[in-house]
Design goal:
The mean pLDDT is about 95. Helices cover about 25% and strands about 5% of the residues. About 20% of the residues are buried.
Length: about 170
């Protein structure tokens, strides 16, 4: 058993972490991530820039005011530090798979929303948008457990190392 947030972490949530000094508090970072952050001089997500006192986001084709309701695109180290800061943790790959494809009845579906093929109402698919969309933009893509944006609006970090599965 585990619990998960219904929505991905948004830019406004991550901005709070940044403003509250999350990049300066070693206790939220693993030793390796803290060293990497310091060597690289990282003080905020790499696609964020401050221009005239306002946060901007470098998107695929332009720099725009930081969209507060978009999912935060951050590194694994930053995602892990944020999770520790809010008293949570990244899901394991198994947990992510369960919340994405599982059902309360214990069976699996082809997609989080069922067995119907992906479409615009279920997520950001087929390059309809070159950048993310707001985390609440595709309620038709919710999983059987009510979790949104598991497919089609960005990458999902897990705590499980990325490696081949057995066999």
């Amino acid at each position: 058993a585990f619990r998960a947030d219904a929505f991905p972490v948004t830019n406004v949530q991550f901005l709070e972490f940044l403003r509250e000094g999350g990049y300066d508090q070693q206790e939220f970072w693993s030793p390796e991530d803290w060293a990497w952050k310091n060597v690289s001089g990282l003080t905020h997500p790499c696609f964020w820039q401050v221009r005239e006192g306002e946060w901007q986001l470098r998107t695929m084709f332009a720099e725009i005011p930081l969209p507060l309701d978009w999912p935060a695109f951050v590194s694994h180290a930053e995602a892990s530090a944020y999770a520790r800061w809010v008293g949570k943790k990244l899901p394991t790959e198994t947990q992510w798979h369960r919340m994405a494809y599982g059902t309360p009845q214990g069976n699996e579906q082809l997609y989080p929303w069922g067995d119907v093929a992906p479409s615009a109402g279920r997520g950001n698919f087929d390059f309809a948008y070159w950048d993310p969309t707001p985390v609440q933009a595709h309620p038709g893509g919710n999983s059987a457990f009510g979790v949104t944006d598991l497919l089609g609006n960005g990458w999902e970090w897990t705590s499980t190392p990325f490696q081949p599965l057995p066999g």
